[in-house]
User: What shape does this take?
Amino acid sequence: RADVGARGSIDWLLTPRWALGLSAHFGGGWLDWSDPIYNTAGKVEDTAWDTRLGVDRVMSVGAGGIAFIGAGIEYGEAHSWVHSLGTLPGSPGSQDLDYEGPRCFRTGGYARLGAMTPVRRRLALCAQLSESFYGAHAVDPRFGTTFNWLGRSLEVSMGLRFEIARGRANTE
Assistant: This one.
């Protein structure tokens, strides 16, 4: 599964080599389908968000670039919907669905590795690899069921990082 989303973060450089970060992500995905045999079509949509709090070891790389390796805790939720339309009532596979899927809650930890290189004054190219391990719980009110499981996910991301505010320089 892939999603399109955005992550915002606030990072504090505690010492020249250690940083504390707080971030939030919101994203989603969709899949449209059509089946010419049963003359049906539909869409699956999902949204997900998470928050993270972690510590990173920061290392200078090249002229102005940095690399970081870190770990932390995270909490997130996911929600999905299915919509379909069958045009021939009574024929196989032609039922209409408008179904809200289970809501999933997950709590766990993550480890990440990343690098940034400056592009312009406050703009940097950023790449990151992050592995999450979590316990998850989902509730499906339509069927009165609950699910519990352990899981993991791998996130690979590339993007631009824009620095909105800079800390004050130490003038001592």
Remarks:
- The first strand starts at residue 4 and ends at 15.
- The mean pLDDT is 85.
